[in-house]
Design a protein that fits this description.
The chain is about 85% helix and about 0% strand. It is an all-alpha fold.
Length: about 200
């Protein structure tokens, strides 16, 4: 296979990946060919030393899924990562980690749900309490109790402020947990993939 054939095949395999990422991949392999030719290797020798274009594209798709999940952690971005892991776990060498993955995923989801529930409950309690105090404070002012009314309004603003802070902290904690899940899933993926590569190396060796 020549360099042009390799690049054409790689371009076909990279369909669906953002063009900006494809350009980076092309530049990376262009450097590989340039360095190889400077060392006196032919295009065919360089191509034979590389993985297949299908394997390369799949590897970049998986890496892109991890990057997206790390940058914008959410159930939507984590789902593709989890599917990758489950796909590896159906292989015989990945089966020993399947139960561990399932347990970790369930635990992580339980933590996220608990954080969401706690954050919403705290924010709602402070928010509702703050609004109630605000209404009470204005009522007291209109009925002549100015000082107590102002005090109640101050209390209401404090309560509402705590509610906002609680909401922000809850969102931060949820995102931190999601990032932790992605980190954990990446380590599991690297572990399973490393074992597969090692086993394949033993067979080919």
């Amino acid at each position: 296979m020549s360099k042009s054939e390799f690049m054409a095949a790689l371009a076909a395999e990279l369909q669906g990946i953002p063009q900006s990422e494809v350009q980076k991949i092309f530049e990376y392999y262009q450097e590989i060919f340039d360095d190889g030719q400077e060392q006196g290797k032919t295009e065919q020798e360089i191509c034979s030393s590389l993985d297949s274009t299908h394997e390369i594209a799949e590897r970049f798709r998986i890496e892109l899924a991890f990057v997206r999940a790390e940058q914008k952690p959410s159930p939507k971005t984590i789902a593709p990562v989890l599917l990758v892991l489950l796909g590896l776990c159906v292989l015989p060498i990945g089966l020993p980690l399947l139960l561990t993955l399932f347990a970790l995923a369930v635990s992580a989801v339980a933590v996220v749900v608990s954080l969401i529930a706690s954050g919403v409950a705290i924010a709602a309690a402070f928010g509702i309490g703050g609004v109630a105090c605000l209404i009470t404070g204005f009522t007291w002012i209109f009925t002549g109790s100015v000082i107590p009314g102002l005090g109640m309004i101050g209390l209401s603003l404090t309560s509402i402020g705590l509610g906002v802070i609680g909401t922000i902290v809850s969102i931060w904690l949820i995102r931190a947990v999601f990032r932790g899940m992605v980190y954990l899933f990446r380590k599991i993926y690297q572990s399973i993939n490393g074992r597969i590569k090692k086993k394949e190396g033993m067979y080919h060796g």
